[in-house]
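Chapter summary example.
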Amino acid sequence: MPKKKFDDSKFDSVTPESAYWIGFLAADGCVSTCKGTHRVSLGLQLADEDHLGQFRQFLSSSNSIRLRPDINRCSISVASRHMAERLKAYGVCPRKSKSLKAHYSLVEDRDFWRGIVDGDGHLRVDKKNRIILDVCGAKQCMQQYLTFCKNVYPTNASVRKHCSIFKVTLCSNAAYAVIKRLYQDAITALARKRRIAEHIIANKETLCPGFRKLTSLQAQTIRKEWRPGLLKKMTAQYAVCSATIWNVVNYKTFKRV
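The structure predicted for these 257 residues follows.
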């Protein structure tokens, strides 16, 4: 049987593509060792088979994708000690669901976080037409992710316990801003989540009216007139969401006004 080929140096350096796949493997992949064989595996639902094809192409691999219609799964794996060790250096290791911590070189990398969101995130528009972005993972990883999000857009979101792991939920403006940062002009992304992201980005005025820009004069007026209990009235008056008013009042935006 001919030896299967692939490029095991793909994770030797951080590139937009390798950063994405490190994030995606951290969320949905598996690095294991059995009887001295080091293996990197990735399994998804059948609907995402094309994404496995992208991963195989990234690895320049001839390994086949295994299809399991009986359990709605498809998977691919490669045996490589070097690749497994490189991924472990980035935190992708056994039992990572409770111990994962983003490598210092990736904490501000949008491609890495898009990989995490594609694997363990949920993008949606709820019944009230609000944009929601949920991401689950290990506590330290979620704390790092929240810091990344706050650097994109001011938010009062927090890391919360969710079953045996932790969760960060962003809504409305913050969710829109982070989704745009992660997915706009992205090289690699899970197709079904990219479609949702593109819909959200293209319809921001309808889905996220709080992104309508206030003027400096309006910001001054809001601060001058602000009183507890006026939040709902101001959101209607200026046609923005409550977070926009709150950020102006607390000098998180229009800091020099």
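To summarize the output: The mean pLDDT is 90.
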